[in-house]
Design a protein that fits this description.
The complex is a heterodimer of chains A (146) and B (231). Chain A is mainly α and 146 residues long. Chain A has helices at residues 3-19, 25-32, 41-65, 71-87, 91-105, 109-142. The chains are: A mainly alpha (146), B alpha/beta (231). Chain A: Its main location: cytoplasm.
Chain lengths: 146, 231
């Protein structure tokens, strides 16, 4: 596909990610930190985010399955998860983390378990969309103008 | 070309101790960034590099102290590695918090002059106050923006020059209040110096330090201290 078309598709997808609330301002910051000397910065950060998230999700699962539930530890993990998702501008994921932390501070186990499902769901959706989007960005970058 | 305050301070230190820094190293501001989050560490590193700083990023307060040479196991020698001009640290970290790191730095005779900036995802006034009272230069709410970093580097290097001039001036006259040894750190002396630095700084950015939310916070806390009734 020719470059102009690809770039147009990239721009459309990017706009919808923001319009639909998946991404927020911090993501724009990351894009602005990318340049010719650091052409893969956004992808690098996003990849770190995936790695970090996988670790934290696993830790949270484990903590939620333990009896009794250690709410302090749970909150600590979720604080970290919220922090990194906020740093990349993952708006919906960050919001679900906030909901989780509210249940956590109320020591509401059921609420935590339910809202954690939401966190994981939003994370999975975002990850899928970002993977598609960044792949498109890469394709547009290497494509030629027809 | 104007030599910024941080470089002047660095060079003076080099002369005193004869520590041999390469020419390129002494041109740049060297920042020690401390954050346990992988993502945030990478971002702050990039933000600082884009602002032309040299960066050392570590993942804990403990490692920060080790880098500075302040670890319990070693004596502080002040020049273990490259001289640090600024420490920017996350507040919430396992083991040693950013606040505890701040205290250790300010308690050390070798490093208390290094400005420390705290970053936190939580915008809690009590926390901000506590950090500022302990001597933090500034407090940034995460996620950190490029404009936050630019602002800090700009007014930090300006403050150095102002600080140096003040110190030289003070040698010639008696201090008004004897107990004001920490006056430079306290909120009461910050606003006036900010006002003067923003108007005379040759390297000032388009946004004045006064416009920043954190500077406003600093001044608001100061106002609160004056006007609020103690509970």
């Amino acid at each position: 596909m020719d470059r102009n078309r690809l770039q147009h598709q990239v721009a459309c997808m990017r706009r919808s990610l923001f319009d639909q609330g998946y991404l927020d301002e911090p993501f724009i910051q990351l894009e602005e930190l990318q340049d010719d000397a650091n052409p893969n910065f956004v992808q690098e950060i996003v990849t770190l985010f995936y790695t970090d998230s996988a670790r934290l999700i696993q830790n949270i699962e484990h903590a939620l399955n333990s009896r009794p539930i250690d709410f302090d530890k749970l909150d600590d993990y979720m604080h970290q998860f919220k922090g990194s998702s906020s740093s990349i501008g993952a708006k919906k994921v960050t919001n679900e983390c906030t909901v989780f932390r509210e249940y956590c501070s109320a020591e509401n186990a059921e609420g935590c378990i339910r809202s954690f499902q939401q966190v994981k769901q939003e994370y999975a959706i975002l990850r899928r969309k970002l993977e598609v989007y960044l792949q498109m960005v890469r394709q547009a970058a290497v494509s030629r103008t027809a | 070309m104007a030599v910024n305050g941080a470089v002047t301070w660095l060079r003076r230190a080099e002369e005193i101790d004869g520590y041999d820094l390469s020419a390129s190293d002494s041109e740049e501001v060297h920042v020690l960034a401390v954050d346990d989050s992988l993502v945030d560490r990478k971002v702050i590193e990039r933000l600082l590099k884009i602002t032309s700083c040299k960066v050392t990023a570590v993942d804990s307060g403990r490692r920060a102290l080790q880098f500075l040479g302040l670890d319990e196991k070693k004596e502080a020698n002040g020049f273990d590695g490259l001289k640090v001009d600024l420490i920017i640290t996350d507040y919430c970290m396992p083991g040693m918090t950013g606040y505890e790191l701040l205290k250790k730095v300010k308690e050390s005779s070798a490093f208390r002059e290094i400005p420390v900036v705290i970053m936190s995802s939580e915008n809690v006034i009590a926390r901000i106050d506590r950090c500022l009272e302990e001597g933090a230069e500034d407090f940034i709410v995460k996620p950190v923006k490029l404009s936050d970093v630019k602002r800090i580097i700009d007014y930090m290097t300006t403050d150095f020059r102002e600080g140096e001039e003040r110190r030289r001036g003070i040698n010639k006259r008696k201090l008004r209040d004897d107990g004001d040894g920490d006056g430079d750190r306290s909120l009461s002396s910050s606003p006036p110096s900010t006002l003067s630095s923003s108007s005379t700084a040759p390297c000032s950015t388009s946004t004045s330090p006064l416009d920043s939310p954190t500077r406003r916070l600093k001044m608001t806390s100061f106002e609160e201290h004056i006007f609020a009734d103690k509970k």
